[in-house]
Amino acid sequence: MSSSEITLRTPFVIQNFASIDNFIMTVFPALESYLNEKLVEGVQTSALVSMAYSKLKDSFKFFIVRNYSKDLDEYLNKEAKRADKEVMKEVLLSTISITLNINDADGHKLTENDYLISIRNIIKKIGI
Prior knowledge:
Layout: E1 6-9, E2 14-17, H1 20-27, H2 31-40, H3 45-79, H4 85-95, E3 102-104, H5 112-125
Antiparallel strand pairs: 1-2, 1-3
Helix pairs in contact: 2-3, 3-4, 3-5
């Protein structure tokens, strides 16, 4: 999975990434330091994958807000003529997830397993 292009699709932005690994490192650039920190804390390598995936999901929401706030606001201004914009924003952000809004090159939605495999590969690459 890590070699094919993937696409982030939301109502307000579409962005391509070279691979799932590239997406993970873009969304969670501190992954390597996070993994090393957890190892120092005594977390077993086998538990790192699920912990990193959980942190990636959290980082994805921050990534969306940090990088696409203007696009999100423009979309909401256009769509929320009579509705409360802040309520719509919260609802929209709550529906965006790394399994629902990321597709592979064939248009299939990525699964949790796709991310877990990629995170394992990243861990191997960095030698943890």
